[in-house]
């Protein structure tokens, strides 16, 4: 059971990261579309809007939620109390601090997406 949960956790981390790495590129493409003619700009902005929406709501958000579900499950299956308070458990505390900042970065993109959807981007 442990290895299946670990595999799912890693799979969803990878898909979550791929969404977070690609969403800034789509924001840049959407911004660059503003330099085109009105016809091209309208077509490109609609196209990038669909791409951003599908990437964010179809891949990135579900992957972030599933990563957040499988991570603690993995810690509890492994016996995180035992691991966390041992000398070798310091890596887990450092990792959890980085995970906290990573979710902050993720919510920064969510806020930018809401701003873009409101037409202020």
Describe this structure in words.
By secondary structure, the chain is mainly α. It contains four helices and no strands. It has helices at 2-32, 38-78, 80-84, 90-117. α1 (2-32) packs antiparallel against α2 (38-78) and α2 runs antiparallel to α4 (90-117).
User: What spatial form do the alpha-carbon principal axes imply?
Assistant: elongated
| Cα gyration radius (Å) | 18 Å
Q: Which class do the helix and strand fractions yield? A: mainly alpha
- Please give the count of helices: 4
Spell the H/E element sequence. HHHH
Q: Assign a percent range to the helix content.
A: over 70%
Low-confidence stretches: none
* Mean pLDDT reading: 86
What profile does the largest beta sheet have? none
How many angstroms separate the termini?
45 Å
Q: Let me know the number of strands.
A: 0
Beta-strand portion reads: under 5%
Question: Outline of this structure?
Answer:
This protein has 121 residues and is mainly α. 87% of the residues lie in helices and 0% in strands.
Task: Name the features.
121 residues; 4 helices; 87% helix; mainly alpha; elongated; single chain
SSE blueprint:
Layout: H1 2-32, H2 38-78, H3 80-84, H4 90-117
Helix pairs in contact: 1-2, 2-4
